[in-house]
Structures are given as structure tokens and as C-alpha cells.
Design a protein that fits this description.
CATH topology: Protein Transport Mog1p, Chain A
Number of strands: 10
Radius of gyration: 15 Å
Structural class: mainly beta
Largest sheet: 7 strands, antiparallel
Strand order of the largest sheet: 3-4-5-9-8-7-6
CATH class: Alpha Beta
Number of helices: 2
């Protein structure tokens, strides 16, 4: 249940030893595009189709966009706004994703790319958040840590 703690460790390169264990939070499951995620109960989602061949999923808490997902075949990864950092491969629940994270004066940003064609679904998922404070970035990272193949 606390896999997100290890994921945060992998994302940010912190020490592998974690002193405190977070309380389990009530979650609701969200299924999309061949994957499932666990969301906090206060999170709500929308799906838009701005183009004929892709969708955008938005996960919000109150008025704050916590996480967005592009689902299609032509993602922009890393985005043009991302600095020239190293993109590295991470594993979340046996799924391999390309990961890119950075911090600037406006907050923390992350992009993760999951090519679902490797797992039998005809789409690419580009998870991202931009300029979040540490609290909301942690919420997004906890959601990402629950990512599983459906």
C-alpha cells in the first residue's frame, strides 16, 4: 500500500531508507486506456478530445490541476518547456516509463511517458504536471505510484 514512498525515493534520488510510513488513504480506482490508477476520494477527473486522434485526462483537487494525461500516438516528450535534463527509465508496478523531472522558480514539474503498445494497447500515455508546490507534486507522485496495467 505504501509503494508511493519508494517511488518518491526513485524519482528524487533520496536515501532508500524511509523513517516514517504514511497512513493508508482512502482511494478510488480510475481506469483509462489500458491502465488503472488509485485516486484520493476528493479528486475529480475530466476527459476532453481536443483532436481526432487523442484525448486529455485531467485530474483535479479543488481548483488545482494535479495531473494530466495525454493519450494518443504523438506525444511531445519531453515537452519544449522542459529544461535539458536527463530522461531516465523508471519502473512502476512492472511498467517501464521514461521519466523527466525538474524544479524551477515556479515549482516542480514532471513528465512520464508510457508506451502502452509494448503492453498490448494501441496508445502512448504521457503523464505530466507543471509548476506544482511540493504538497501537490507529492499527491501527483502518489497517484503515479499506483499505476498498473488493467
Amino acid at each position: 500500500m505504501n509503494s508511493y514512498l519508494l517511488l518518491s525515493t526513485l524519482f528524487f534520488g533520496q536515501a532508500a531508507c524511509i523513517a516514517a510510513v504514511a497512513k493508508p488513504m482512502k482511494q478510488k480506482q480510475y481506469v483509462m486506456e489500458g491502465v488503472k490508477l488509485n485516486l484520493p476520494p476528493e479528486m475529480f477527473t475530466t476527459k476532453t478530445s481536443p483532436g481526432p486522434d487523442f484525448d486529455i485526462y485531467t485530474f483535479k483537487s479543488s481548483d488545482v490541476v494535479i495531473l494530466q494525461v495525454y493519450a494518443g500516438l504523438n506525444p511531445e516528450f519531453p515537452s519544449e518547456s522542459a529544461p535539458a535534463n536527463n530522461v531516465r527509465t523508471i519502473e512502476i508496478n512492472r511498467l517501464l516509463l521514461k521519466n523527466h523531472v525538474w524544479t524551477d522558480s515556479m515549482g516542480i514539474s514532471r513528465e512520464c511517458l508510457l508506451d502502452m503498445r509494448k503492453y498490448g494497447t494501441h496508445t502512448i500515455l504521457h503523464f505530466y504536471y507543471n509548476h506544482l508546490n511540493a504538497h501537490f507534486a507529492n499527491v501527483a507522485d502518489k497517484i503515479l505510484s499506483t499505476l498498473e496495467k488493467k
